[in-house]
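1st attempt posting a full record on here, be nice pls
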Amino acid sequence: MKRWFKWLFLLLTVLLCIGGGLFLWQSGFFAAAGSQESLRAYIEDFSPYSHLCFFLIQFLSVILAPIPSNISALAGGVLFGTWVSFLLTFSAVTAGSLLVFSLARGLGRDAVTRLVGRKVSEKYLDVIHAKTDIFLVLAFLFPFFPDDVLCILAGLTQISFRRFAGIILCTRPWGLLFASALGGASFSIPAWGMALIGAAGLLLFLLGMKYGDRAEAAILRRLRRNSHS
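the predicted structure (as tokens):
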């Protein structure tokens, strides 16, 4: 029964990818994704189902990855406001992340390597295996890494589905909330401000990769001492 369910799940996922890709292509999404203005117009054309259209775009962006979810969240913030854009985006991205994680676990390494490319797989898979939790947390928090690809590669590690879901729920909301707020609010960040944010994020990532294990061990030691006191 489990084997039958696994193949049914894989078949439905493949059909979803094909159907979703055809829908985006025929509806003109890939042409509209070239700018914020055309993307907003594309979503508005589906009114009164523009919210559903936006959710599907964010969900399929994780699976097909035509554009980063943060960019479409920015457009959603302009159309629907900060919180509606964030809730739709976060629910869609979470569902898509868990789906591709499960898909990778079912397909295995050879199929995933063909899907994401050997160079990308070799670039990230070793470090994910070596520092699974700390690397995924840092990579999802900072906007320098292909989050959707990392969700797929994480499915090839020993991390449990529940633990992976916890990391997704704790780390992926913040960038999406920032993008939605940027689109839904009247303020804007200048280029130099974005550069400073990017530099600070990169520095934190490098420090986390170098000292993450020590920090994690220190926290665990403190927690153990507190539990015995």
